[in-house]
């Protein structure tokens, strides 16, 4: 679309130059041939056709759905089953061949490809409707968790088959909806069968997220899918291990918090695409390190609050049954595999770094290792050996300040806006959080807000002037 707008604007300007005598007719023809002015109208015509087809397809689908709803109670069970499956397969087949012909054609047609992808996504939605309706037709008792998980895994198979970014994102979102709905159901023990597939999926979601979603990111070459996979892994790991508050000792081992907080940044920072034998390029390694810094910031910020280190009463929401110890130990499988992967990645990182290693690389690696060591050791010491109280809050406030300052320095050194503003906002958030956490009067709060706002404005303007000056040089 941007290229077409450029071509259209260039055609208008070049026609004006030709009419004003700035360029000759032959020069105009050279420009027209170089930028393919003749294809502008053809592209617009194809886009209009695809828009008409898309709108017509939507109206046809709405008409079919309305017809089905109007006669749903009248039809027999077999008719309902055949009709819904026919709708799913017809939409899927038409979308697949439309998308395939646009991708594999001699001249890739963007509008046709988008139409095919839209029909494939529509068929993914129809798949969910089919699962729900078939359960109703055949009187299968199920929960929303089972619906979303089955739907999500079905769309995941479609995403792997077609390597489509949109289907991959949709599959991860559906599975995550099923997971978080299931966490609420699990706390009320809705699944009486301890070995049901839903319970196993919920308990092993961290490992499944890493094993199922990361390879999909490579198939689709999608940074969005990799980010969603990282979020699904880290959030489900924290949720399953439930490490907070730190003095929750009723049914959680003292090493749980160390694994829950240290494993995600350790995996993200040491991640290397070259670990895959068929990958010879680094597609997601920089993104993994950005995610590690985000994970460090979140962990430091959460553990910087004083109340996290104080004793609190806690009652587990999980009912105690004969198999409680078994299911509480199930995450150990995930922790063992993921910890082994983290160790393998760090060994690979140490082996393949520059030789001789640069001073900056050595310092950064040592700093990240120190961060991970503090995250792993301090909560364990507090839970298993001796209460450290306010010292724990002080340690993580210092670590948060070091991380913020390091990001600011990196942004200044590399003229990187993301690093600079990330560090500034993290430092500002730390100052405001400490001010709100402690008992301070309104006058002091007002002073802190005014100072933070003034510093952000002045430093931001200075940084932008600095970037402008460096660009001019």
From TrEMBL:
DUF2157 domain residues: 16-167
Keywords: Membrane, Transmembrane, Transmembrane helix
TM regions (residue ranges): 50-69, 81-99, 119-140, 147-180, 200-219, 224-241, 253-271, 291-309, 329-349, 361-382, 388-407, 419-436, 442-463
InterPro entries assigned to the protein according to its UniProt record, in alphabetical order: DUF2157
Keyword Methyltransferase: no
Name used for this protein in its record: DUF2157 domain-containing protein
Organism: Dendronalium phyllosphericum CENA369
Organism phylogeny: Bacteria, Bacillati, Cyanobacteriota, Cyanophyceae, Nostocales
């Amino acid at each position: 679309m941007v290229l077409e707008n450029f071509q259209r604007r260039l055609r208008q300007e070049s026609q004006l130059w030709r009419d004003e005598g700035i360029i000759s007719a032959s020069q105009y023809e050279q420009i027209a041939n170089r930028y393919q002015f003749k294809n502008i109208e053809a592209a617009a015509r194809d886009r209009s056709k695809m828009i008409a087809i898309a709108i017509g397809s939507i109206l046809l689908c709405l008409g079919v759905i309305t017809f089905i709803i109007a006669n749903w109670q009248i039809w027999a069970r077999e008719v309902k089953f055949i009709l819904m499956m026919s709708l799913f397969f017809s939409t899927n087949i038409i979308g697949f061949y439309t998308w395939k012909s646009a991708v594999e054609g001699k001249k890739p047609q963007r509008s046709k490809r988008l139409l095919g992808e839209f029909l494939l996504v529509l068929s993914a939605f129809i798949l969910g409707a089919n699962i729900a309706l078939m359960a109703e037709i055949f009187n299968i008792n199920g929960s929303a968790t089972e619906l979303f998980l089955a739907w999500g895994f079905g769309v995941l198979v479609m995403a792997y088959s077609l390597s489509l970014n949109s289907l991959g994102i949709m599959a991860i979102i559906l599975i995550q909806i099923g997971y978080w709905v299931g966490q609420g159901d699990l706390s009320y023990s809705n699944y009486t069968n301890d070995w049901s597939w839903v319970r196993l999926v919920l308990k092993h979601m961290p490992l499944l997220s890493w094993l199922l979603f990361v390879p999909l990111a490579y198939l689709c070459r999608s940074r969005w899918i990799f980010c969603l996979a990282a979020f699904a892994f880290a959030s489900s790991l924290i949720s399953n291990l439930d490490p907070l508050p730190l003095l929750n000792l009723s049914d959680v081992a003292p090493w749980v918090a160390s694994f829950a907080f240290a494993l995600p940044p350790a995996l993200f920072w040491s991640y290397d695409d070259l670990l895959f034998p068929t990958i010879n390029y680094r597609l997601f390694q920089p993104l993994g390190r950005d995610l590690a810094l985000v994970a460090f910031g979140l962990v430091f910020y959460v553990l910087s609050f004083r109340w996290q280190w104080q004793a609190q009463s806690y009652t587990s929401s999980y009912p105690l049954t004969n198999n409680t110890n078994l299911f509480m130990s199930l995450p150990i499988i995930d922790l063992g595999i993921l910890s082994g992967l983290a160790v393998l990645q760090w060994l690979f990182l140490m082996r393949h770094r520059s030789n001789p290693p640069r001073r900056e690389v050595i310092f950064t690696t040592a700093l990240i290792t120190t961060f991970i060591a503090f995250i792993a050791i301090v909560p364990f010491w507090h839970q298993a050996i001796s209460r450290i109280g306010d010292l724990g809050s002080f340690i993580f406030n210092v670590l948060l300040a070091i991380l913020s300052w390091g990001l600011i320095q990196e942004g200044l050194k590399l003229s990187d806006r993301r690093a600079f503003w990330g560090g500034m906002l993290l430092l500002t958030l730390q100052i405001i959080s400490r001010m709100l956490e402690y008992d301070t009067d309104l006058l002091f709060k007002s002073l802190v807000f005014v100072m933070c706002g003034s510093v952000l404005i002045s430093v931001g303007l200075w940084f932008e002037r600095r970037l402008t000056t460096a660009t001019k040089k």
